[in-house]
Each structure stands twice: as structure tokens, then as C-alpha cells.
Amino acid sequence: MFTQYKYWKPYISPYDPCPPIRVKSYSTPPNLYLHFQPPGLPQFKPKEALYHGTLWPALFSPYPDPHKRGDLDE
Question: What is the torsional sign of CA 34, 37, 39, 45?
Fold first, then answer.
């Protein structure tokens, strides 16, 4: 399944003095998956485009919910 957000479980050392972050994440922007802009790409209406920060829905990348960490369980 395609997702713009990737998750992984880092190694947690038994000697680390800080509380561990068990699941870490990073985002991959949608333009990495769209090499050239194809003709006839769907567009948002002008007011929606200002709200989303882009004219094209294919390039929209929302911020993830900080409380949801994907399908990895702690």
C-alpha cells in the first residue's frame, strides 16, 4: 500500500539514559513519486488550492496525526 509516511522501530540500547522512542517516522513528499507532470492532471478549485497549498491534489501532502504511528504497535 502506498503511503507518504514511513515508520520503523530503531534499536534501543539498554544503556540509553533517555526514554526510548519506540517507533520513528519520516515523510516522503509526493513529488518523489511523480516524475513529470502529466497533461490533464486534476486541479483543486482556487479556494481549495489556497487551503491545501497546492493546485494539484496529487501533490498534496497532509501533516500526519502525531498520535497515530502507522500500523506498528509498541
Answer: positive
| pTM of the complete model beyond 0.90 | no
Q: How many CA atoms lie within 13 A of 2 on its CB side?
A: 8
At 33, give phi and psi (nearest 5°): -100, -5
Mean pLDDT of all residues in the chain? 82
Stronger pLDDT, 35 or 55, i.e. the higher one: 55
What ranges make up the beta strands (E) of the chain?
A: 5-8, 24-27
- Asked if 59 and 30 count as a contact pair (C-beta separation under 8 A), the reply is yes
Helices (H), the chain: 46-52
